[in-house]
Specification:
With 317 residues, this protein is α/β, with parallel strands linked by helices. It is built from 12 helices and 13 strands. Helix content is 39%, strand content 19%. It holds the Pfam family YhfZ_C.
């Protein structure tokens, strides 16, 4: 008959203490304050001795380091998000991402999924068009993390996100040089009477109204922004703003051209809204520590390398 450890109950108590401490550490992040011993005793029935032993074990395994603030609790000075996540036995992350296709978006998605894999955090990924709908799904707790532009994140039709938000540098969601006007070859601005506009996309609407202001004899034609090249080719619109994506048929092979946006207001709008923004489920505060693992400089470097290695036949210019 196998022997039962006399310390089995204590071992379980310590495991529980480690789990609860790890959860709270992920919730507050580095420089955040852990609850007091009294809180852990009242809420989780963890006595002071067990709490201290759990903290020592977490420190010895390099999962968590803290600094005592006496009766005020402890400050988190270092945290291994992956180790704490698995010690806490937290459930997998549900990612809700935009459709892939542009280099910027593909690099952003790869960055977050690579980080999760390195941290040994399980995840599932789903794609959903429409930034505002993705935000609503995360705010409702149906998904855990979404990726949108800073413009969508701060759009006036939405209340401020109640989950954690990580905003990267400008250009990370839309690179300025890859935000172009598509038209037929050998046409210019004076020939562009009908202009595609995607009013389901707040960013596309903003960019279009900046580049093609109302009152300048433009007729706006409702157009899915992804379909701008096809609709120009079919003669249904004269021009439209397009975010360059990979295509088996380069624009110039189809008789189309891409030109840079020219309006000062468009470029100013781009600077204001072109940063990538990650938004988390407000019901999962532990996700805030994960956002701290995302690095704007790493994303920018990956995007730059991807632009340089892009197949020249797929380049819009």
């Amino acid at each position: 008959m196998p022997k039962i450890s006399k310390n089995a109950g204590e071992d379980q108590a310590i495991l529980n203490a480690k789990k609860q401490v790890a959860i709270h550490a992920l919730n507050v992040g580095i420089n955040g304050k852990l609850p007091t011993n009294s809180y852990f005793k009242e809420q989780h029935n963890i006595v002071a001795g067990t709490m201290q032993r759990a903290l020592n074990l977490l420190s010895e395994s390099d999962a968590l380091s803290t600094r005592s603030k006496g009766h005020l609790g402890r400050i988190v000075t270092d945290i291994d998000v992956g180790l704490c996540w698995n010690i806490a036995k937290l459930k997998p992350i549900q990612l809700l991402m935009p459709s892939s296709g542009s280099i910027e978006i593909d690099c952003l998605i790869k960055h977050v999924t690579t980080k999760l894999s390195q941290l040994n955090i399980p995840y599932f990924i789903h794609n959903q068009p429409g930034a505002l709908e993705r935000i609503r799904q995360v705010e409702a707790g149906n998904s855990d993390i979404t990726l949108v532009s800073k413009g969508a994140c701060e759009h006036p039709t939405l209340t401020a996100p109640t989950g954690s938000v990580k905003i990267l540098e400008p250009n990370t969601y839309y690179c300025l040089k890859r935000l172009v006007i598509v038209s037929k070859i050998d046409t210019n601005a004076k020939d562009w009477k009908t202009v595609g506009i995607d009013r389901q996309s707040t960013d596309h609407t903003d960019f279009t109204l900046c580049e093609f202001p109302s009152g300048h004899a433009h007729q706006y034609i409702e157009t899915d922004f992804r379909q701008v090249p096809a609709r120009v080719l079919r003669g249904e619109i004269d021009a439209g703003i397009w975010h360059i994506t990979g295509s088996p048929v380069p624009l110039y092979f189809a008789g189309l051209q891409a030109t840079e946006v020219t309006q000062v207001t468009t470029r100013s709008k781009h600077q204001a809204i072109s940063a990538a923004a990650f938004i988390t489920n407000p019901k999962r505060p532990e996700l805030s520590s994960l956002l701290n693992e995302l690095r704007s400089e790493e994303v920018a470097l990956a995007q730059s390398r991807a632009f340089e290695s892009e197949d020249p036949y797929n380049k819009a210019f």
